[in-house]
Amino acid sequence: MTDHPLIPGLDVVHRFVDRPDGRVHLVEQGAGPMVLLVHGFAETWWSWRRQIPALAEAGFRAVAVDLRGHGGTTSSAEVPAYRTEALVQDLLAVTSALGERSTVVVGHDVGSPVAATAALAAPDRVRALGMLGVPHTPRGPVPPTAAFAGLGDDPAFYVSWFQTPGVAEADIEEDPRRWLAGFVPGLSAGAGTSPGPDGLFFVPRGARMSDRFPRGPLPAWLTEEEFDVAARSLRRTGATGALNRYRNLDRDWADQAAFAGAVIRQPALFIGGQEDATTTWMADAIAALPQTVPGLRISAVLPGCGHWVQQERAAEVDDLLVEWLRGLPDAG
């Protein structure tokens, strides 16, 4: 094994899977039942750098993808190309290209609803579902942008602020490293970020999201060298692909009408951070998981943990994932 210079035990193979309008980049390590890892906003496969070798050592085939517009996966100029339906098809294409009929899918942040939609849309292809940070939320009665607009327009909820092409890009792409250096600590445990209108998730009129970011050292769980990998990737790809995920929320809502009232029956896991604003906003959805995801086997909210669950608390997340995976049918 040739260890990665930053992460002992990380020895991945890079691959590309063709799709009609481009290709999907992935990394893999290990042999055994496949576990497909799906990252979150403005990240890449790198966010799973601690889980990949742990899963491989435990006897699983760990596969981490870059979503469209991130890392080494092809971008598209068309906003609808980033809808969840298209991302699900990418996951299924990767599964087939790697010679697997079905897979476990584990998503973090925006990757979690992509994974959950895959479980709903292709229950014969997704045999288990892992959700980190963001719980499954059934389709609501109104389009998401209408719901977020109801939170106010001054300051505007960040999802609403992301909707206009070019606005958030100007903030992020002016200096991607500096932007991430405020965003990442701001969502980490100990930042004291308010989930309300006075916090960084709400943008006053004429301001930028980064105006409310904390400025200081990186959190203890993240080295400068690890951070540089993520910052270089965002600088190379730009922010549009990541932001376009949010610009498809209403399309996703329309696409998912067929799943209204459906529940996810595959074996499932949820891990959140107690200090993640999402845990506050979506407390009702977390409490409802036994009804909306009746296959739920493990649900854990980690104290002293922020949004970056698998990075902030890598060892605990690794243990929970392996425990859950080993309990699945045909786990190997």
Please explain how this structure is put together.
The protein has helices spanning 51-57, 84-97, 111-121, 144-149, 158-161, 167-174, 176-186, 224-237, 240-246, 249-255, 277-281, 283-287, 289-292, 309-312, 314-326; strands spanning 13-19, 22-29, 34-38, 61-65, 103-108, 126-132, 156-157, 202-203, 268-273, 296-302. It has one domain: Rossmann fold, CATH 3.40.50. It is built from 15 helices and 10 strands. It is an alpha/beta fold and 332 residues long. It has an 8-stranded mixed beta sheet with strand order 1-2-4-3-5-6-9-10, sandwiched between helices. The chain has a two-stranded antiparallel sheet with strand order 7-8. Helix 3 (111-121) links the parallel strand 5 and strand 6. 48% of the residues are buried. Helix 6 (167-174) packs across helix 7 (176-186) and helix 7 packs across helix 8.
The geometry reads as: globular
Radius of gyration based on Cα positions: 18 Å
Structurally, the number of domains stands at: 1
Query: What is the CATH class?
Result: Alpha Beta
Classified in CATH, the superfamily is Alpha/Beta hydrolase fold, catalytic domain
Descriptors:
single chain; 332 residues; alpha/beta; Rossmann fold; eight-stranded mixed β-sheet; two-stranded antiparallel sheet; 15 helices; 17% strand; globular
